[in-house]
Model the fold of this input.
Amino acid sequence: MSTHDESTPGWERWANAGTTEERRRLLLVERAYDAYTIAHLERTGVAEGWRCLEVGAGAGSIAAWLARRAGAANVVATELYPQYLTSVAELGVRVVRHDVTRDPPVGADFDLIHARLLLEHLRSRDEVVARLSSWLAPGGWLVLEDVAFVPEIAVRPALRRLEEKWLELAAGTVGSDLTWARTFPLPLERAGLTETAAEISSPVLRGGSAAAIAFEASVRVGVPALLAAGAITSEELDEVYAMCADPAVVDWSYQVLVAWGRRPAGG
Done:
């Protein structure tokens, strides 16, 4: 298990970053959401020669896709735990261990910057949006994807309780805000970006699906803290796990939202 001090940002202190379990979770996220992410990135027009930054690159699938689309030499992938990015580095992508909240920029004048399921876990998320926006070239695009819980529409009481308690515990423990994305695209507009828009970008959370399996893996990250706090019972967790495996269960309370915006061509 990795150890983290208080300087380590949000989720990384809570998750077992750097472990086999965390790599499995990241691969499940890729399986569930890559098709959606790629569609959003294609909408920007990303092409050969674009300078691209993948922030919080995880296990590297989107950085690898950008390398194929824009050229590996034009792509930078950052991570606090970049050991999962060896294959991406072998493609020619520049891989950097980097804390987006405080480390110096890894470059400037990017045509495309993307981050997925990252900013909701950073206490300084709005400041990070401003930082990322300042690293764009005039006319460059910022694309953000973040989770939002909507517990009030959860399909089962156990799931609603889990989400309500997870919202509280994540906020108090690591500073996550799992409702922040519901304000999209306002954070991008406050950072000075234009041509902004936002939409829900989620497959339905249906039991047995890639999205449900990825959700369960993420839930398990917080289980020790949830149980220790008495926020949920083992029986309720078992019910949630059973839901994640049951194709008869369909739920929309766990959503990924996407927002995009462009730095004005004149600034």
About this structure: The first helix runs from residue 10 to 14. Confidence is low (pLDDT under 50) at residues 1-11. The first strand starts at residue 52 and ends at 55.
